[in-house]
Structure formats: C-alpha cells, structure tokens
C-alpha cells in the first residue's frame, strides 16, 4: 500500500512540475525539458506490463490534455513503457529481474544514467518526430530532440538524486 501511495504522489508531483513549470519554459525557443517520464522510468520492474502501459498512457494523456498536443505524449510514453524492460535488461546485471525498485541506489549512477538516457532519447525522438511529422525538418528535429534529451536527463538525474538521498535519511 505504501508503494501505491509513493507512486501516486510521484505521478502528481512530476505531472504538476511538467504542466505548471516546464511546459512554460522553452530554452532558446528550441529546447523543451520533459521530466514527467521519470514516473514511468521509476516504476518497479516487477509491476505487470499491462499496468505499466496503462499508467504510461494515463501520464501521457494527462500531459496531452494540458498541453493541447493531441496524443503525441501518450504515444511516446506508451512506447517508452513498452521498451523499458528491454532497456533495463541491457543495463542491469541480471536483466533487472532481481530488482524490487529502480533508482540510482539500485542501479548505481552509471547504469541509471544509461537506462534513463536511452529511454529519454527514445521518448524525445518519438515525441518530436510525431510533432514535426515532416521529413524536411529532419535535422532540425533531430537536434531539438537531442538537446532536449540532454536537459531532461540532467534534470531527471538531479531529481532522482535528491529524492534518493532524502529516502536514505
């Protein structure tokens, strides 16, 4: 029961940060940080895949509703949730099967950076290419997704390190 409350709180905090703060920030009109995906990234590896996909859709849909983005966040979030176990299997020692939860403490900083970085890149490239939906802006969209991923990964590492330090006290 405590885990459900923790995930619910994380959902509302990350969605609120995204909707109220980060959706209103565009660095150079080019870079958009998206940290709401940290909710999906941190879901327990043993959680049923169907539940993870549903939660990812709900998070993406919530962001879509408040961003007027017509389903691109939902699509990118569900793809991220679908590929998450494969990426975790790539970066963790035993494929993530032995982990109760995901975080910097469980994966260590290098593996967590790789895990969250790959998922963030997948999400951002999907999101920005669905948004552009034109190949004539391929390189511009590529750079926008890459730069936004760098900022988002940095912010997610900062948030996770703050919360993981707070949990250990």
Low-confidence stretches: none
End-to-end C-alpha gap:
21 Å
Shape: globular
Based on CA atoms alone, the radius of gyration comes out at 15 Å
Q: How many strand elements?
A: 0
Integer average pLDDT? 90
- The amount of beta strand, in percent, is under 5%
The computed structural class is mainly alpha
Summarize the biggest pleated sheet.
none
Summed up, the helix count is 6
Helix % is over 70%
Total number of distinct structural domains: 1
| SSE topology string | HHHHHH
Q: What is the topology?
A:
Blueprint: H1 2-21, H2 38-41, H3 49-67, H4 72-91, H5 104-132, H6 138-168
Q: Which keywords apply here?
A:
mainly alpha; 6 helices; 73% helix; 169 residues
Task: Explain how this protein is built.
With 169 residues, the protein is mostly helical. It has one domain. The chain is built from 6 helices and no strands. It has helices at residues 2-21, 38-41, 49-67, 72-91, 104-132, 138-168. It is globular and about 45 Å long. It starts with a helix and ends with a helix.
